[in-house]
Amino acid sequence: MKILSVASEIYPLIKTGGLGDVVGALPLALTSHGMQVRTLVPGYPSVLSRLVKPKKVHAYDALFGASATILSAKVGDLDLYVLDCPAFFSREGGPYADWRGNEWNDNWRRFAALSCVGADIASGALKTWRPDLVHAHDWQAAMTPAYMRFGMAANIPKVVTIHNLAFQGRYGQDIFPQLGLPPEAWGVDGVEYYGGTGFLKAGLVSADAITTVSPTYAEEIRQPENGMGLDGLVTGRADRLHGILNGIDAALWDPATDPDLVRAFSHRSLAARKANRRAVEKRFGLKRDGAPLFVVVSRLTWQKGMDMLADAVDHLVGMGGKLAVLGSGDHPLEGAFLAAADRHRGRVGVQISYDETLAHLMQAGGDAILIPSRFEPCGLTQLYGLRYGCVPVVARVGGLADTVIDANEAAIASGAATGVQFGPPNPYQLRRAITRTIELHADRAAWTIMQRTGMRANFSWDRSAARYAALYRSLAA
Fold first, then answer.
1. What is residue 66's three-state secondary structure?
2. Structure pTM?
3. Which helix (H) or strand (E) holds 56?
4. Residue 266 CA neighbour count, 13 Å, CB half
5. Interval 422-449 mean pLDDT
6. Are 244 and 22 in contact (CB under 8 A)?
7. Residue 172 belongs to a domain with what CATH number?
8. How confident is the model at residue 101 (pLDDT cuts 50, 70, 90)?
9. Which residues, other chains included, contact 332 with Cβ-Cβ below 8 Å and sequence gap of 6+?
10. Domain range spanning residue 296?
11. Fewer CB near the terminus (10 Å): N or C of the chain?
12. CA distance 408 to 425
């Protein structure tokens, strides 16, 4: 089958979070299942700079008022279509916001253009290639199924994956006349959403199948407290809803071969992790001792529970732990962690940024990784932690609940435990989880078994890719 994937990020060309990782890894995993995937992505500067001899396959004189070209290229094993539109994507800053963190005020136009091009490809705009199915990721690409439905590609199967329902692409009614859709697209079964225009909502009502990135999250978003206003729509389409757990790139995230580590290791050579631990301590200015080293690699936001963790830092240090934080996000939370590092010099270290290389090293050197999210569709960080023997301490939500086996007495006794779960996600339960983790860490034999059990677990894309391939075939049939 020929699959067109449409997304706003793809690793290793552009990434702000797990979306980019998934969009980059899934096409490769699907190859062994007879799927030929080509991914349409925006032509950000970081993407265009990686293209070698791209081929122009289509041109637009006025795509939402701007000239644009579709480029065909191959980067590594990824087959790409790149929307080269300088007016929309050649900007300093991130893919969605400027360097100050302010969202681009024309994001609706930028990603409507991306979606429209996706629908054009589906309808046969490229003479040499036409997909059998289109898979759109998150709100930035979710208008693709809507353009297909109200255009010339209504009969081609359409899949939308929700990576995070909190981000929906909601805009005013005033942009609808500029979207190039017919009048009948405005309505409750189209793009209209509480009197405005909803990109993700339009994709969900137009899709033949909806997937989320974990089974538990697929259930959670059907409840009002987690549905972000779309629980009624999702529940009404429950027969088309599939929770398929994300995987990780097992070759990229392999502690035995990872070039970003000071020293490679496996579940048979855990003692080698100590060299990576010392490197983390040095990088964050932490004292060299045997205290349990907690690490955080995260966006510093309310969703990720970082406000609760900032309040729990004194407890963590008071119990004898150390903390290294890598991330950026809300300025008050950045300030709270920096203040904690100032209070607890040598016990708490903070780097306000994102550094992919350092993230690998922290997973390889930390004892435990803290993920106290209030909601988490899937999460990849805990999977990386499991792979690297960095025990996850997670809230019992979404994909975190699906992937980490809590170290209760029965799980420890049977050797099945892989981490620490807590719930509900609140400050009290987080502090209890930190205390439990420090107590578990003191039992070196049990801790080592937990590390090895997690490292032996299989969270590659093999099983999940098979489920996606089966879904694609069922829709095509």
1. strand
2. 0.92
3. strand 55-63
4. 4
5. 97
6. no
7. 3.40.50.2000
8. confident
9. none
10. 270-456
11. C
12. 18
